[in-house]
Amino acid sequence: MPFGDILGQTTAKRILQNSLRKGTLGHAYLFSGPAGSGQMKTAVTLAQAIFCTALEDDACGECLECRKVEHGNHPDLKILSPEGNSIKIDQIRDLQRVFSYRAEGGHPKVYIIDEAGKMTVQAANSLLKFLEEPPVPAVAILIADNNQSLLPTIQSRTQRIPFAPLSPEMMMQVLSNEGVSAPLARCAASLTSGLEGCRELLEQNWFAEIRNLVLQLAKESLGKNGSAVATAGQKLFKTGLGEHLDTCFSMFHLWFKDMLYFLYRKHESIVFIDQLDLISNYARMRTSSQWVAYMDYAAESKKKLRFNVNAQLCLEQFLIRLES
């Protein structure tokens, strides 16, 4: 995959391609930024570009070296990811053993460590010396959504390449091209920072159900007929959807923000755009400060969940506050 096929990340691609062109590649990189913003694709493309026999600063995708990477069988590329919940010292030792042999071509070897923040302390310490003094020419690429999850000594030995969240518009366009319905794509893109995260959400059967339920609960709670709490009990907790309450509160947050967008005439930013008629009816029922307060309620409720407050009680209290 050439760099041009990677969505966004202009800064990251420019830095890496300039280094390839000038022959100034670093020995170790840290790709840091939100999960799903293209770090792994960029890492694999960088490896391809290093091995590529046709292009100087990109991957042609057609030469033998590029095709080996595409097929996952290039002998000079090693990708590590957590085994279970962590990357263990044995995985780093195995990497060191593989890298005791020279590369097959005239290029350095490349290793990619995905979710590098999940290295055990022993694994991280084992990697340290290897990062600085690999037995053969090598380029290390560490991927972490939060660079602070890595030991400071590892951070100091790598060149940080920043990755930014993909814009919702960019993700929605790709998802639309893949045949995802616009309302669901818009919602997923507003709740995640990368395409992979979007796709994971959209693959869940409960995602569309939660969206429909949030709309129903929002109507009932704002209608002040007292039925929202009963609906929540019946539909959320008797169907297993209660496990996804965190996403439920995030969607409520988006719904209330949409009311503000409508009041401020920012229709292009509205997430639940397929509900525009409904939003136009409800938006003026509250002041902008009340909608902001409702957004705060949703954020507070998410926080309560993290502190293990009873989920059903948490949602019922939230809905009662909306009805009051």
UniProtKB/TrEMBL annotation:
Superkingdom assignment: Bacteria
What keywords are assigned to this protein?
Answer: Nucleotidyltransferase, Transferase
A biological process (GO) annotation for this entry?
A: DNA-templated DNA replication
Cite a single Pfam family from the UniProt record.
Answer: DNA_pol3_delta2
State its Enzyme Commission number(s): 2.7.7.7
Gene3D superfamilies, alphabetized: P-loop containing nucleotide triphosphate hydrolases
Q: Which GO terms describe its molecular function?
A: 3'-5' exonuclease activity; DNA-directed DNA polymerase activity
- Which InterPro entries does this entry report, sorted A to Z? DNA_pol_HolB (IPR004622), DNA_Rep/Repair_Clamp_Loader (IPR050238), P-loop_NTPase (IPR027417)
Please state what class of enzyme this protein is: transferase
Q: What is this protein called?
A: DNA polymerase III subunit delta
Q: Which organism is it from?
A: Paenibacillus sophorae
